[in-house]
Amino acid sequence: MSLYQHTAKELHEKLLKKECSAKEIAESVFARIDACEERVGAYVTLEREGAMAAAQAVDQKIAAGESIGPLAGIPVAVKDNICTKGVLTTCASRMLYNFRPPYDATVVEKLRGADYVMTGKANMDEFAMGSSCETSYFKKTANPHDLARVPGGSSGGSAAAVAAGEAVLALGSDTGGSIRQPASLCGVIGLKPTYGSVSRYGLVAFASSLDQIGPFGRCVEDVAALYGAICGRDKMDATTARRDYPDFSAFNGDVRGLRIGIPKEYFGPGVDPEVKELVHAALRELESAGAVLKELSLPGTDYALSAYYIISSAEASSNLARFDGVKYGYRAEEYDGLLDMYEKTRSQGFGDEVKRRIMLGTFVLSSGYYDAYYNKAKLFQKALRAEFVAAFEDCDLIATPTSPTVAFRLEENVDDPLKMYAADVCTIAVNIAGLPGLSVPCGVSEGLPVGMQLIGPRFSEQRLFDTAYAFQQLRGGSLCPMPELA
Amino acid sequence: MRMKYITVIGLEVHAELSTKTKIYCSCKNSFGSEVNSNCCPNCTGMPGSLPTLNEKVVEYAIRMGYATNCTINPVCKADRKNYFYPDLPKAYQISQFDIPLCEHGYIDAVVDEEGNTKRVGITRIHIEEDAGKLIHSESFSGSLVDLNRCGVPLIEIVSEPDLRSAHEAKAYLDSIRAILQYLDISDCKMQEGSIRCDVNVSVMPEGATEFGTRCEMKNVNGFSAVERAIEYEARRQIEVLEAGGTISQETRRWDDLAGKNYLLRSKEDAQDYRYFPEPDLGAIVVPEELLEELRATIPELPGHKLLRYMKETGLPFFDANLLCENPDKADYFERCLALGRCQPKAVSNWLLGDVSRILNEKNKTLADTKLTPEKLCDMIALIEKKTISNTAGKTVLEEIIWSDKTPDDVVKEKGLAQISDTGALEAVVRSVIDANEKVVNDYRGGKTNALGFLVGQCMRQSKGQGNPAVIRELLEKALG
């Protein structure tokens, strides 16, 4: 077994026992990248030199007898919408094709402090708008389990890198399912944390009230460790909660008495029967281990998709207005005056999907339409939150499919935005309600991974990890087999 | 017959607050720094940057709210105002839309020298961030952007359309500025643009019950420019109406040099700012205790003080107004009065006269001097007791203002005590008469004002110590 195939937990033990060096780990991961990146296309930018230097610094620490943390020397891919000082941060957009931020995102600063090794910047849908990674200006990313299929999105590069062994861990961001859906399609574990638990400072904003950075990994312990390293109050982000967090290194695998709610709206006709069956089978396993399954109803779910596209597009139209060619990034080469510069820059710099959302968002905020759309969506948001709070009185967590289908074929949905939007139907309500959602692989349908989503009350990440850990134990300690890609 | 018109004016005043740091980041809030030096990722609108609220800004604004009799909304929020302009790097301004921090207030502006006041409603006061500045240079064909001013905290003070003349508008603005200074929350430096004004003007025939259609003039710089802009705009609207036309709602730009305004955009072209709640900031919640604490910091305000001085000390409007202009000066004046050693008018004369002159010459403030109220009053008392002459008083002031010396020290040191002894002064008078034969003849020939010259000569010869009244008496006797 090569080093790149190990989990962070295993690699940490190897480093402690001096069975390998951080440099060897980095070399192994980059050898894997060399072997399959051409086919997978997980990265926009590779940071080979920086990674090697960071790995060597870890080795020096170890040699000097200093103690190292669980992420020291662990190769991590960072989604390309998270600012990395001096390293290209493009959001997979022509608009930022040349943008090197003068500062690090808070999560990057934290991981640097934890001695991580950044492998590179992961591909994504342009400005995180998409569910297939196909709206990237630079490249398409393939699903490591079937190279003709999408990895999901928008954090498709992050998910594919972890699934293929091109990184041990990855950071993504999730606004409507952008971590969980690609985790599901690529057969890895991904967490969308509680809104306000991870700093957004340095995350290029898509929809500020919904965005959240979160971890990918190939075992529950790894995802928990990465989450533990990035969560916490940040004075640079006023929306982070003032509270203390455990270190997420201990897991209670006992699910006896755990009440798992199964909302019928998430198992409707839009969901592939085999996906439904695999999720049900996983839940039956948890039941046989002592969990209590409870049918319930979340009727607000039906409106979540509409509300999501109103709120997220409204915020995006404002957040993306700063890309005007004046200060950084792309500027049209020829223009006649200020207005023309704005128009040409934005027409040429943004792709179709981004433009679609900006127009939608501009419309719903327009005078005369605000109350009918934006205001109504915000009212719905309140109602949906209340609906979840009420549901959690009867259960400890909720389980649903993560994605209604397995990975679809590249190009299959690109010309049908509504069909593409439906890929997020199971994940969106979680963002609107600000809840944590964890996607864990629960089986394979026709060779493609299927994910189960566990949803908990706000700040119940530990409970989600405990339950996923129990499930991982039930499945023999591993949920994420790595594809050969030979 | 020509109809008479009433001018209706409402003002939106933008005042920069003098907090140490900016409103949404920890960059320094200072004027005149090197271009683009007081900037962080927030100020420059870097992708991924986020605002965090400087709570001092909220406190400053609430104090202004209390000083203008507003209701404070203890729970409010920030909103985004979206528009494209190169000096606005995020392409939205973080402002407040439907729930301002303060609303429903008023001030009583003193409008004339009799101390009459006009009550002007304050619709709202909200907090927002300033934008950067565009720089146009002949050495460069495009425009340059300086983002230092981005994120400088502003309050926007919106008045009700209660003002009826340019003069009232000026009085209102003077009151607002004085309050800002008393609260010490704004530098109020017009030349640095720390107060800017949008002016709304409409006219209606006398006796009408409904206001006319208003026009807005943006960014009128300077209070006297506001007066000129209002007068011009009211005249323009009346001329349009008199010619049978109608006023359409529009935004116009005031060109103070040309003394004219120009159409900027009509109502149809009005921008849709697509306001919505700022998702990067939580609700602004001000605890009850803090509100009480802030309310307790409001000092006696200048308008009230002005009227009190006029009433209690009998000072004319001119003196009282100048004394109240600046809270430090007013405070100094009151400390002098509290000593009870000299007349209020004498204190006022010295403070507004020679003391101000010396401070202006040296570009200093009272706080920079060693002139305690005790020393100033002792000096004035020496004059009132005729121990020294007024002229000698000026010499004493020049000394005691920068040193630890008392007025008595200076009088002794320089031998400035006034001589009223006729015996000593007679010799001086004699020698001046002898030395100025021509002037003496003029006086005797009926040129009575020649006496003043002779008094002056005697004062000079007595090194300023002679009592001028005694000298005058002696001269008149000798020449009579």
Structure write-up:
The complex is a heterodimer of chains A (486) and B (480). With 486 residues, chain A is an alpha/beta fold. Chain A has helices at residues 8-16, 22-40, 48-63, 106-113, 156-164, 180-186, 220-230, 273-288, 301-319, 337-349, 352-365, 371-394, 417-421, 428-433, 461-474, and strands at 43-46, 75-79, 117-122, 169-174, 189-192, 212-217, 259-263, 292-296, 397-401, 437-445, 448-455. Chain A has one domain: Alpha-Beta Complex (Amidase signature (AS) enzymes). Chain A has an eleven-stranded mixed sheet. In chain A, helix 2 (22-40) packs antiparallel against helix 3 (48-63), helix 9 (301-319) packs across helix 11 (352-365) and helix 9 (301-319) packs across helix 12. Chain A is globular. The two termini of chain A are 14 Å apart. With 480 residues, chain B is α+β, with helices and mostly antiparallel strands. Chain B folds into three domains: 5-294, no CATH class; 302-414, no CATH class; 422-479, Arc Repressor Mutant, subunit A (Orthogonal Bundle). Chain B is built from 15 helices and 16 strands. A nine-stranded mixed sheet of chain B has the order 2-6-7-10-1-11-12-13-14. In chain B, helix 5 (302-313) crosses helix 6. Chain B starts with a strand and ends with a helix. The model of chain B has no long low-confidence stretch (mean pLDDT 93). At the A-B interface, helix 9 of A face loops of B.
